[in-house]
């Protein structure tokens, strides 16, 4: 089993980061982490602290998605999930959003994700499209995320997540998931098939 000790080395920098959520200004503490590989960089936005309440911290591990997070693409539900998670974390006494840009396209990168999209346009589903271009269905590694959580004292958490495999991966790195809380998103005519595939072929509990 992998452990936090096997995860990449860690460099950290911290700053305040004001952002807007639903048009309102919200202040987070932002921590950037650099892993062993140049592309392994992640951002953690922390809200509140452990002294603020009784509940375990509420955490979202979010895989970067240029098309969804930035352009609000309707081919996936990333933007909706990120916004719902930000709101849930802000409503909690203590929580964090862990954002992993290098998890783009479930870890295969933007270009291959777009190649897979092009195949999906011809009727191939998200799992088979990855296989067809020789990319793994899921290439994400959660070692750096687990190490960042441990660094921030977030060793026991409630996780905003629809993907049981993610829960297992984190647990494998020594993070205790006391509760998994689903993040709802509304299907639209562009992503209905994608969401169904995530549910039927990837074990997502949507
Ligand atoms: Zn997306």
From TrEMBL:
Superkingdom of origin organism: Bacteria
Alphabetized GO MF terms: 3,4-dihydroxy-2-butanone-4-phosphate synthase activity; GTP binding; GTP cyclohydrolase II activity; metal ion binding
Any Gene Ontology biological process: riboflavin biosynthetic process
EC number: 3.5.4.25
Pathway: Cofactor biosynthesis; riboflavin biosynthesis; 5-amino-6-(D-ribitylamino)uracil from GTP: step 1/4
Keyword set, alphabetical order: GTP-binding, Hydrolase, Metal-binding, Nucleotide-binding, Riboflavin biosynthesis, Zinc
Pfam families in the cross-refs: GTP_cyclohydro2
GO CC annotation terms, alphabetical: cytosol
Matching InterPro entries: GTP_cyclohydro_II, RibA, RibA-like_sf
Reaction it catalyzes: GTP + 4 H2O = 2,5-diamino-6-hydroxy-4-(5-phosphoribosylamino)-pyrimidine + formate + 2 phosphate + 3 H(+)
GTP cyclohydrolase II domain boundaries: 26-181
Cofactor: Zn(2+)
Name of the protein in question: GTP cyclohydrolase II
Organism: Hyphomicrobium sulfonivorans
